[in-house]
Model the fold of this input.
Amino acid sequence: MPYAEPSSSPLVSLRDIHLSFGSNEVLKGIDIDIQRGQAVSIIGPSGSGKSTILRCITGLIRPQSGQIRVGATQVDQLHTEAELIALRQRVGFVFQQYNLFPHLTVLQNLTLAPIRVLGLDRQRAGRLARDLLERVRLAHKADAYPGELSGGQQQRVAIARALAMRPELILFDEVTSALDPETVGEVLTVIRELTQDGMTCVLVTHEMRFAEEISDEVYFTEAGNIVEHGPASRIFHHPANPRTRIFLERSL
Ligand code: ADP
Ligand code: MG
Done:
């Protein structure tokens, strides 16, 4: 149910989110606030609930209890498919697997949804797509097919595709984990520039140095709990919780 949202309130807020798969309690009371223009990282061991948190924000899964708000939208109250589709237009989501359409060119991958969903005409969508390809440094690949690109290039196309929907924020779920080491940097560069441009970004990553560099706020998850959160400089250099400290010692 939409309601008047004070402009100073966070763009995204999760309050006391509980979620179980069968008898497996995966989220045990998650509270997260994401301000407009912030880069927020969620770090923590595998299986601690990071991807599940992102999927809750986009309404892909519904928690058993708690409140999730994105802008003026109370995500936990959405019921119809149309409402959920509208939410997902506002929240970009980039995964480890880029899932580009293999039979479409790079440009067509970028214009498909803006034409079909946003109703842009082909020319306008094409111009927007070329601008975005410029931004991810792939203007020269507009007419290539995904299979002709490296993993890092495909992931940059996937980021441009998310941007083409003009989202209010973008969620990145381990977007460099499947890439060859030599192409990781070019993807991180694109994300870094997005955060510098003021795009609200939520990043689940194992790239700890990168998370430290770009994040305004870091959340550390373990076994379905937020163990601690705070400014990146504090979490990475003075973690208050011994579990965070052990995790960072192993990861850095
Ligand atoms: P992370 O992203 O931190 O590695 P996930 O959010 O993917 O962790 O998973 C958290 C827990 O939830 C894990 O125990 C995982 O096995 C379980 N889980 C995730 N998705 C599902 C699902 N669709 N069905 C059942 N269990 C799931
Ligand atoms: Mg995950």
Summary: DSSP finds nine helices and ten strands in the chain.
